[in-house]
Amino acid sequence: MKYSKAEIQAHLEKAKVLVERGAGSYTSYAREHGVPKTTFHQWLKAAVDTTTKRSRPSERSIVKLGKLAPVVERQTIIVDYYGSRIEMGTTQDLVELLKGVRKASST
Fold first, then answer.
1. 12-30 pLDDT tens trace
2. Element (H, E) at 39
3. 0.90 cut: is pTM over it?
4. Is 1 helix (H, G, I), strand (E, B) or coil?
5. Cα(36)–Cα(29) distance, rounded to whole angstroms?
6. Is 79 buried (19+), middle (13-18) or exposed (0-12) by CB count in 10 A?
7. CA distance from start to end of the chain
8. Domain boundaries defined on the chain
9. Is the per-residue pLDDT at 5 higher than 80?
10. Is the pLDDT of residue 35 over 80?
């Protein structure tokens, strides 16, 4: 089936509202309305490409489909290790700790 630009735009707007409400995904919208998934995602990509005005294609961000994850505040990571309580501020600190534990346990 051939869709007009107005029909495509209407589908995209309805799907966006559905996703923003958390009531479904772009894929579920396409399935429910009889639009092939690949066709619908081509429409999404084309819509993003026309609204993204950056100097180089490599700078375009990836399209995030579906529900957005909430922004997480900075958290402290706490590890209890043989009775010691170790607090870390970043995942890199955790990685370094685990590397040290691994090295110490292998010697």
1. 999 888 888 888 888 899 9
2. helix 37-51
3. no
4. coil
5. 10
6. middle
7. 67
8. 5-59, 77-106
9. yes
10. yes
